[in-house]
Amino acid sequence: MTARVLQSGIIRLDDTLQVEPLEITDPWPPARQHT
């Protein structure tokens, strides 16, 4: 879903701000928990 969200965010600058935080917050927590 990262690729789809990124593409949508790039196309919509207004949504990018709301999509960026969600995208970065999703992959970060799980990655840190595994470490």
| Dominant shape | elongated
Radius of gyration: 11 Å
What order do the SSEs take from the amino end to the carboxyl end, as H and E? HHH
The tally of helices reads 3
Low-confidence spans: none
Largest sheet: none
Tally of distinct domains: 1
Percent in strands:
under 5%
| Tally of strands | 0
Distance between the termini: 23 Å
Helix content: over 70%
State the secondary-structure class.
mainly alpha
List the helices and strands and how they pair.
Blueprint: H1 2-11, H2 13-25, H3 28-34
Helix pairs in contact: 1-2
Please describe what this structure looks like:
- It is a single chain.
- The protein is built from three helices and no strands.
- Helix content is 86%, strand content 0%.
- The protein has one domain (2-29).
- The N and C termini lie far apart (23 Å).
- The protein has helices spanning 2-11, 13-25, 28-34.
- It is mainly α and 35 residues long.
- It comes from Pseudomonas syringae pv. actinidiae ICMP 19096.
- InterPro entries: MoCF_Sase_C (IPR005302).
- GO terms for molecular function: catalytic activity; molybdenum ion binding; pyridoxal phosphate binding.
- This is MOSC domain-containing protein.
- Residues 1-20 form the MOSC domain.
Task: Sum up the structure in keywords.
86% helix, 35 residues, 0% strand
Quick overview:
The protein has 35 residues and is mainly alpha-helical.
